[in-house]
Amino acid sequence: MQVKKTNPSPTKTILTVVADEKELAPIKAHVLTHFQGRVKVPGFRAGKVPAELLEKHVEPGALQSEFLEEAIEQLYVAAANDHRLRPVDRPQISVKKFVPFTTLEFEASVEVLGEVKLPDYTKIKKAKPETKVTEADVKDVITSLQQRLGEKKDVGRAAKEGDQVFLDFRGVDAKTKEPISGADGKDYPLTIGSNTFIPGFEPELIGLKAGEEKTFTVTFPKDYGVKVLQNRKVTFTVTIIKVQEVVLPKIDDDFAAKAGPFKTVAELKADIKKQLVEEKQYQAERDLESELVKEISDKSKMTIPEVLINDQITRLWTDLQQNIMYRGQTMQEFLESEGKTEETYREDILKLQATDRVKASLVLAEIAEKEKLEVTPEELEIRMQILKGQYQDAQMQAELEKPEARRDVAARLLTEKTVKKLVDYATKK
User: What is the CATH number of the domain that holds 366?
Assistant: First the structure.
C-alpha cells in the first residue's frame, strides 16, 4: 500500500492511498464471507459454499459495493494509524480509481487534531484552599430557618421591615416606557429586608397596605446577571395583594427540634457549621481545579479543528434551550433580555465558552497520555455500581447498561484522575 500525506491546513490532512491486488485479495475474501447464508447455491448448505463458487453466484454490483466500503475503511484506518493521525471527524472519501479487486486509489480528507504544546504544568503552584465558617455565617442560616418556620398572619396595617408581602408588579424602561421582558410578576411573595430583590426595590414597599399601588424607579446593578438590564433605570408599578406579619420563633431547643433531628440549639448550630464547612470546602476545591485547568489551557498552544468547536456550540445551545424552558421563558424572551439574536449569542457568547471547553478537554487528554493515566476495569465497574445504586428507575438503569454510557463514565473518571494529578503537583511543597 502506498500512502501520500498532505496538510492543506494545521487541522486538515489528505491521505492519498493506492492499493494493489496483494493488499486487496484478503479484503475480498473477507467480504465474500458476508454473502454466506445470503446466497443459495444448489447442492450446498447455507454458509458452506466454497468461495470461488460463491463469487460466481453473487451479484457483481453488490459484491463490488461492499468490497469498496470494507476496503476503504480498512485501508484508511491503517494509513491513519501509520501516520499517527488523530482524526476528530469521519473522513470525506473520494475514489480516484477502481479496477475491481486489483487496483484501488482514493483520497481521504479528514479534520485532525494537531500537536498540543503543554507548558511545564508540574511547576505551576497553588495554595491549598482553606475555608472558614464564622458565627455570622451560622447566624445567617438560623435567621433563614426562623423566616421559614415563622408563623405568618394576615394584617391590615401598612407593611414594615420584616413583613412578607404578596404583590403584583410590572416594569417598563424609565425612558421609553417600553415593557421589559421578565420584569413582571403576579402574587409574588417577598419578605421586606431579605435583600433578595433588586437593590432599592424592597424599601419602596414599606408603608403600603393591601390594595394600594405605587410607582417608583430603581437602577439595576452594573453587574446584574442579565446584561441588557445592567445600569438600566426601570420604572415599576406594584400593587400590594396582602401583608403578612412574620412572627419569628424563639431560638430554643423546641426550634431546633422543628428544624431537624436535633435535641438542642447547640446540636443544630454544630450541624449547620459542619454542612457549611463541607460546602465551602467542596466549592473551594472545585474553584482551585477550574483555576488550575484554565491556567494550563491558557498557556498551552494548539490549533483547534472548527468541527470540535461547532459540535460544542451545538451542545451548549441545546442545554441552554432546556434551561430556558425549565425557567418558564421562551428563547425569544431570553435573547431579548440579553440584547442578542440567536446568531450573535452563538458567536459572542457560546463560541468563547465552547472554545474554552474544547481546549481544556484536549489539554487534559494530552496530560493523561503524558502521565500514562488510565482507568482500570475494576475502577469503572465500581463507579458504574455506585451510579446504578443512585438511579433506581428502570429507564435510567437501562441507559447505564449502554456501551456509550460506560465510555462516558470512563472518560469522566480519567478526567478526575488527571485533575487530581494536577492538583497534587500544584499544592505539593
Answer: 1.10.3120.10
What digits encode the pLDDT tens for the residues 360-401?
999 999 999 999 999 999 999 999 999 988 887 888 888 888
Q: Residue 176 belongs to what domain range? A: 151-247
Which residues are CB-contacts of 46 (< 8 A; sequence separation ≥ 6)? 36, 37, 40
33 inside domain: yes
Nearest-Å Rg of the Cα atoms of the chain is: 33
Report the CATH number that the domain containing residue 14 is assigned in CATH. 3.30.70.1050
- For residue 77, give the nearest of 31, 29, 27 by alpha carbon: 27
Q: Does some domain include residue 282?
A: no
266: exposed, middle or buried (Cβ count in 10 Å: 0-12, 13-18, 19+): exposed
Which of 65-74, 284-293, 299-308, 331-340 has the least mean pLDDT? 331-340
Place of cell 431579605: 194
Q: Under a CB-based contact definition with an 8 Å cutoff, are residues 13 and 85 in contact?
A: yes
Please give the model's pTM, rounded to 2 decimal places. 0.75
The one-character DSSP state at 169 is: E
Which residue's C-alpha cell is 469522566? 412
Report the DSSP beta bridge partners of residue 268: none
Is 202 within 8 Å of 264 (Cβ atoms)? no
Q: Sorting pLDDT into bands at 50, 70 and 90, what band is 212?
A: very high
